[in-house]
From TrEMBL, chains A, B:
<dbReference type="InterPro" id="IPR004516">
    <property type="entry name" value="HisRS/HisZ"/>
</dbReference>
<keyword id="KW-0648">Protein biosynthesis</keyword>
<feature type="binding site">
    <location>
        <position position="300"/>
    </location>
    <ligand>
        <name>L-histidine</name>
    </ligand>
</feature>
<dbReference type="InterPro" id="IPR004154">
    <property type="entry name" value="Anticodon-bd"/>
</dbReference>
<comment type="subunit">
    <text>Homodimer.</text>
</comment>
<dbReference type="Pfam" id="PF13393">
    <property type="entry name" value="tRNA-synt_His"/>
</dbReference>
<dbReference type="InterPro" id="IPR015807">
    <property type="entry name" value="His-tRNA-ligase"/>
</dbReference>
<keyword id="KW-0963">Cytoplasm</keyword>
<protein>
    <recommendedName>
        <fullName>Histidine--tRNA ligase</fullName>
        <ecNumber>6.1.1.21</ecNumber>
    </recommendedName>
</protein>
<keyword id="KW-0436">Ligase</keyword>
<keyword id="KW-0067">ATP-binding</keyword>
<feature type="domain" description="Aminoacyl-transfer RNA synthetases class-II family profile">
    <location>
        <begin position="42"/>
        <end position="378"/>
    </location>
</feature>
<dbReference type="InterPro" id="IPR045864">
    <property type="entry name" value="aa-tRNA-synth_II/BPL/LPL"/>
</dbReference>
<dbReference type="InterPro" id="IPR006195">
    <property type="entry name" value="aa-tRNA-synth_II"/>
</dbReference>
<dbReference type="GO" id="GO:0005737">
    <property type="term" value="C:cytoplasm"/>
</dbReference>
<feature type="binding site">
    <location>
        <position position="137"/>
    </location>
    <ligand>
        <name>L-histidine</name>
    </ligand>
</feature>
<feature type="binding site">
    <location>
        <position position="133"/>
    </location>
    <ligand>
        <name>L-histidine</name>
    </ligand>
</feature>
Length: 489, 489
């Protein structure tokens, strides 16, 4: 017989850029998504779950070349050789869903969606190829009341998941105001206009002085490299800087400055008026500048949007990986985009929406100690006598029936130390022990593992004597005693 | 200038075999998953969410050929030309996760997982390429106490999601008993053994008489085609039939019959003893034969498993698409599989688990009217005067603050009829109207849309007069009146 070539063992690894989530990482996220869904639902939004796989044609933005369809999405060919891909966000699928089902959907269509999206991008630290998004969008509402409402909803979401007022701010801007500014600058060509837009995008990073230099002759950056500027005169650059720095003491002051920055531009005036309407609507609903502000320095993603844009930022400071203080930063963003559905139907359908970065928001809550990062484990009923498994199972059945998380140790029970090590690894609050003697006497031993751990760390001998962390109770009192200990922990 | 070729519009369609889920379809499933997670958690299982994408090597079962990696999974090559694929179930990823993280995980490792899986199979009616699974598994526990526990948990899950006792049954069998039966039959070769296994798999479909024919000379099937049999003698076939039909009046009776069916086989005796232990453990926890039974006719998927297997079946009758009565059937299944981790590490790790078909379970609850299939929509505040949007937004802000789902109509308000049509399409319970006159008088009109619909269908003129479905209340009583109507509905 020919020798059979042995297959090498497969490697147990996630593909590059992917990861697994364990225990509290999963349940905390599920709890947060459920809270966010609750707010979205209260605002009248309906759930939508579209398929994870879309035709590349419908996704649109990323078109694969024939050999390697690798431009940002994970794509492959189906049995008819048509390219399909994993969705890279929840907005492109919404446009497809709306176009496909528009005759059956209400108008306006308000939907929320939550789930993983996939990006075929270079992974990095904390940057994965699969992550969660959590969006709400209103399709078919031209009124800026829809935008104002989404800002109010975003504020409610942040407070509902545990970010107190004062620790966040929702900032609102309008792409039309920027268009107005560009219009009144009288730029000579499209290339110059694009260069100005790219420079504005750097405002977050380089600040006012940096943008001033970059719009003019250029700038020596931190690495020592010289970055060529757009080449505008000081006068030409002025409207952009006036726009970016026009945040005033209140909405009225900001709007006055913006009106000056846009000069005679009609589109600019429309943008400023929309911002005024949004501010008025928010005040009428009780959302003051402690929660939502007009802020022209919100520039991120302006290119994608056609009207109002908004961003939620957490304002408290955290320490970064190098121990330096920095603001936590953006956790959600969105705005108005009016031509996504048009790709499919030819009809322009106004739409506005928001996307919440759930994983960043969870990280923020952990950072602030608002959610426990370690989950409490089950009560562990240890196995002293393998033949009495039925007795131990009866105990956990009683505990579970009382709503208490509990399990019998199901590993090899020979080494009792391993059972307690298991309980420790699970972060169990209580262990239950019933050996032959206890069984004969009709009692069980109940160990308070949390107290035991505290005592082991720093208790004096007297405290050890005074505060026993192990109790002997009648078998019939098992559930009552465990509950008592859990309530005290 | 050359004429620019216009791109044709993309088609707004889901890829073949995929679908979208709307509103209650999504939120009902989320609610069910949350309930199931609650039971799993109470039993001491921890959440795990592995990545949707795995290396094809790790998935193992389906290996793509080079040209068309189409054998059951959706696969593609990553930037290093390695094949990766969407997971086709939650068990293969569990084996990979356990092998990868085994030094950090507790032993036994009890985990639950829920989420979509993908199959590259021919879609059919009600058969999609993406669907949900909801699994719980215990890795590293050799004791059948782990299997018994999963059966008990499955029973709890079904009752927690709304299937009352009596409407379901969990059936338990053991692959080892079947192996014992095959052993004592003294089959001449592996080919014959495989043929017997394939025949047993048809028991669900063809019943005892059918299996008898198929084990012997052959059988004329319903379509008129003659199916060749395995060619066993009547005596040789007897143990298989004894095994399949050995369900007795109670567990003890069934076990006695099984002991007869396995003759002198040691593996068979081990299997019967495991079933006895499982039955004893379940009785000790209070799970009687009204919930969980030993049933040797459970054959589905036996090939995959190495020990105990279980299946949950809904026992009530429904009408199929042709109006015929049939039992709803299986909604969950699982069992012991002891060599999945071995592929990676070389070490055999015992494991047992269950997978719940969430979508089928939801369908069953809808069928029985236990969950509403249409979700209640939001209270709709209509827009009578576009310039008073702030007033209307203030109303919904009050309603939402009181926990009432509400929204302002954000479409074009010109045609009032469209606003009521919208409320109807959303299945809204209440509409609120405040025109100029109402504003001047400090009142609002509140329409009970559910009562209105009922009246429109079948009310007499007297009833119309007696039971108005529209109320005029002071603006300050808006929230109280809406709440009153909602509570009555």
């Amino acid at each position: 017989m020919a020798k059979v070539k042995k297959q090498p063992r497969p490697k147990a690894v996630t593909p590059k850029g992917f990861r697994d989530y364990f225990g509290a990482e999963v349940s905390d996220r599920a709890a947060m998504l459920s809270k966010i869904a609750g707010v979205y639902h209260r605002y009248g939004f309906d759930a939508l779950e579209s398929s994870a796989v879309e035709t590349v044609e419908a996704l649109g933005k990323f078109l694969p070349d024939v050999d390697r369809p690798n431009e940002g999405v994970f794509a492959w060919q189906d049995e008819d050789d048509a390219w399909v891909a994993l969705r890279y966000d929840l907005t492109a699928p919404l446009a497809r869903v709306y176009a496909q089902h528009r005759n059956d959907l209400p108008l306006p269509y308000r939907r929320y969606a939550m789930g993983p999206v996939w990006r075929n991008e270079k992974p990095g630290p904390g940057r994965y190829r699969q992550f969660y998004q959590c969006d709400a969008d209103t399709v078919g509402a031209a009124s800026v009341a829809a935008d104002a409402e989404i800002c109010a909803m975003l504020s409610d979401v942040l407070e509902d998941v545990g970010i107190p007022r004062g620790d966040y701010i929702v900032r609102v801007n309008n792409r039309k105001v920027l268009n107005g500014v560009l219009e009144c600058m009288g730029l000579s060509d499209d290339g110059q206009r694009d260069a100005v837009l790219r420079t504005i995008d750097k405002f977050d990073k380089v600040g006012e002085a940096g943008v001033r230099e970059l719009l003019g002759k250029g700038r020596l950056d931190a690495s020592g490299a010289y970055i060529d500027g757009v080449g505008l005169s000081v006068e030409q650059a002025e409207p952009v800087l006036a726009f970016l720095t026009s945040k005033g003491a209140d909405a009225a002051a900001t709007l006055t400055k913006l009106r000056a920055a846009i000069g005679e531009s009609l589109i600019g005036a429309e943008g400023v008026d929309e911002l005024r309407q949004i501010a008025d609507l928010l005040v009428a609903q009780g959302y003051g500048p402690d929660r939502i502000v007009i802020d022209p320095s919100v520039v991120r993603g302006l290119g994608y949007y056609t009207g109002p844009v908004f961003e939620a930022e957490l304002t408290f400071e955290i320490l970064d990986e190098k121990g330096r203080k920095r603001q936590f930063g953006s956790v959600a963003g969105g705005g108005r985009y009016d031509d996504l559905v048009k790709r499919f139907t030819g009809q322009e359908v106004p739409a506005t929406g928001v996307s919440i970065g759930v994983d960043r928001l969870l990280a923020a809550l952990r950072e602030k100690g608002r959610i426990q990062s370690v989950e409490s484990g089950p009560v562990v009923v240890t196995v002293m006598d393998r033949d009495r498994m039925a007795d131990y199972q009866a105990m956990v059945a009683e505990l579970r029936a009382a709503g208490i998380r509990a399990e019998v140790y199901l590993g090899n029970p020979k080494n009792f130390g391993n059972q307690l090590k298991y309980a420790d690894k699970r972060n169990s609050p209580v262990a239950v022990i019933e050996g032959g003697d206890e069984k004969a006497q009709g009692v069980v031993q109940i160990k308070d593992l949390i107290l035991g751990k505290q005592m082991a760390e720093n208790a004096t001998l007297e405290e050890w004597k005074e505060r026993p962390s192990q109790y002997e109770v009648a078998r019939g009192d098992l559930v009552a005693k465990v509950r008592e200990i859990l309530e005290q922990q």
